[in-house]
Each structure stands twice: as C-alpha cells, then as structure tokens.
Amino acid sequence: xxxxxxNPDYAEAVKILVFGAGVIGVAYAWQLSLAGHDVALLVRPGxxxxxxxxxxxxxxxxxxxxxxxxxxxxxxxxxxxxxxxESFSPDDHYELILVCVRRNQLxxxxxxxxxxxxxxxxxxxxxxxxGVTEIEPFLTPSRYLLGFPSVGGARDQRGxxxxxxxxxxxxxxxxxxTPRLERIAGAIRSAGFKPKLSRQIIPWFQIHxxxxxxxxxxxxxxxSYEALTQSSSLIREMILALRESLEVCRARGIxxxxxxxxxxxxxxxxxxxxxxxxxxxxxxxxxxMGHATDxxxxxxxxxLAEGERLGVNMPHLKGFxxxxxxxxxxxx
Length: 332
Prior knowledge:
By secondary structure, the protein is of the alpha/beta class. Helix content is 44%, strand content 19%.
C-alpha cells in the first residue's frame, strides 16, 4: 500500500532503493524517508543486524535554506533507522534506484545493477569524468539518468557527519527534459532539495571533475584544509592548475561558461579563500578528502592521463602527483 508524501509538492510516494550506504546514500535515504517515500538502503552482508538495532547517528549541517555566505544553517542531530536490505532483484519492483557509490566503485556496481534493477530508473548520483563510456556496455540510456549530489561529509563507525546543500543536478544523457526526469526531480524536491535539470549534464560533469582534480592536488600538497585556506600562494597555484585542467576539457571539445576562472589572480584568489572558509565548505571538503581518498585520487589521475593523451601543457597539475600519492597513503 502506498503512503502519501508529507511534502505537498509531490503527492505520491516512490519506491526507492539507495545503492551505497556511505554519507551521500544515507543522507538521501534519510531525507527521502522523512518526505514519505518508501526507501530501502542496500548494505553489505553482515551489516544489517547491527544497523537495525542501533540505527545511524547523523550530525547534519543543513544549508538548504541559505547560501555559503547568506542565511542561517540548521544543525540537526538525529538517529536514522532505515529499512535495510542486503540484496535486491527485479521482483522487488523498485521505481527508482539511487546509485551513491564512489567514482572508482562504479565498475563493480554495474553488473549487479544491470541484472537486478528490473524496470527501475537508475539515477547515478556521483562524480563522472568518462560520461557514459563505462555504463554503455551494461545499460541503455532509457534505463538511467545522471546526477550529482548536494551532500558532503564523512562516515565512520559512529555515524554520519554531513552537510546538505540545496541543488541536486539531474539530466538525461541526450539532454532532453523528459517526463521521467521531471518525475524523479519531483521526488528529490519533496525531500527538501532543489533539483536543477541540465541539458548538458555530461559536459557539466567533466568541468566539475576538472575542478576536483586540481583541488585534490593542492589539498594534499598543503597537508590540511587549514593550511590550504590560509596560503595565498597555494590558492593561486590551485587556480593555475584549474585553468590547465579546463584546457583538458577544451581539448575534448567542452568549454566552461564560467568566465570568473579567467579573472586576474589578485581578484580571484581572495574570493576563493573566502569561499573555503565557510563551515559548509570545510565540512564537505575535509570529509571528501579524508574519507573518499581513493575516489579523489582516481579522478585526479583520470584528468591527468587525459591531458597527457591530448598533449595539454599542465605543469601545475602534474606537479601535484607525488603529493596526491603521499596524501592518500597517509590518510589510509
């Protein structure tokens, strides 16, 4: 029997499986459940009993009603008791599967999704540098959407510490605004997020990953979030590396519409430092860099390898290689 969502913007509940029980998966499952959707969280075998008895402790900075500089964030502490499953099949009849695994874990997830998703729409809610290249052998475009989460933070044995931002980016591979895209956007909206429907989701992802690559290198060179945000020279170096990684995108035929990256360094560097000093910026960044080290390293070397293949000059981006390797080893 279907329940009715508590959010009036979306009246009918959706049966949802969240594939990936990290910070992003838990945060979306939590918020979608609160909105009245029928949500199950997929966990590794052996974890179900523990989580059913104790739940997931959540410490949340909710920024959805504000910006990084304007408005008031809400601090929420809760214990979330999700519906948990250790496997799924077409017989479960999920309507939506949110895939919230790390970029480097996608290859392992695809065979399971292809064989067990049934008629569900699969929403890949993760970083994506390669577009559909990895997905195509397993799924046709009619079976999935691409998206990027508006959640950051970290998960450990004690629970989840996260920040919730407003915009969740969504798009069809071909750029069309379809009824199913709008339907899924409605479900996301009912959970308090603001879906942004993109006609160019793949180019957006590649520009985003270019930014992840340069930030990863500079972060590990700095050694800590504090050291990075206090160093004007490192901020300038990161901006120069970003311009190089955007050249990699241009070499692939993708141009950023954000002209601010070309501003003089004496203007752009202080603006960037201010952005990083926000509480939300710190929480999301430290969580990602410290607890998703394999993912950010993977993205950094994906972008670097593509730039080398295309013959792009990248002295600043290349100069981060040893820091990324050493930093990842240290965090592990």
